[in-house]
Each structure stands twice: as structure tokens, then as C-alpha cells.
Amino acid sequence: MGVPRQQEVRIHNPTASTTVNPGDATTFSVVFLPRQEGTIENVLFVHSSLGTFTYSVRGKGTGSAYRIRPLVGGKLPVNGTLISPVQLHNPHPTTLRVTEIYTSGGDLHLELPQIGSQTQHSATLWVSL
């Protein structure tokens, strides 16, 4: 769970518009980030000068091969801090090097452990199971 998947969606505009010329098309990305396993259905709203277009969307949330558990539903006081180690399973036969971490929300700060200089990290930071 929590493994994003990006898919391109093509929109064709056969009429006049201020952003897409008649007969032209545009694309935008839709990211599916499930927070639970199973089928998830929702509605995508595209607002335009010609009105709102609705599209039914559906995706299937599956467990992560890396066994990363979602961190959802936590409650903290204002300016509170939660330190929750993220455990990562390496399903590959070779060493997995974590080079970046990020979140889909803007209210959470994540960082890799800092040991020594920015370019030299301890071997304990590599995941090899």
C-alpha cells in the first residue's frame, strides 16, 4: 500500500476554449495513491469554462513488496513531533540503496538519516536482507 502509480490521461477538446484550441488535445497526470488494499472507486472532476466534466475512476490497492506500512490517521498537537522509523524490506537479491524519500502530503517532513558528510553514509543505512 502507499505505492504511487502515475498514469497519463488524454483529454480531447472539439470545441473552443481559452486553454485548449479547437481540435487540439492536452494531457495531465493522475496519480493513484491507495491507502488501503482492495478496489477503490472515486470521481475525478475536471472544471472548465464549459462546465464540469466527471470521470469515474477505479484502482486496486495492493500490498507493497517492500512491506512499507502507511502512516495514516495519526493525531498530533500543534507543533508536535512524531518520530516513527520506517522499516523497508528488500525483496531483491542485490543491495537496495535508498536515495530519496518524500510524501504525498505537504504537512509532513521526511528526511534520510544524516551521518557524517552528505556523500559518505554509514553502511548501516543500506538495506540488504
TrEMBL record:
It comes from the Eukaryota. Residues 66-126 form the TMEM131 second Ig-like domain. Pfam families: Ig_TMEM131_2. InterPro entries: Ig-like_fold, TMEM131-like, TMEM131_Ig_2. GO terms for cellular component: membrane. This is TMEM131_like domain-containing protein. It comes from Gongylonema pulchrum.
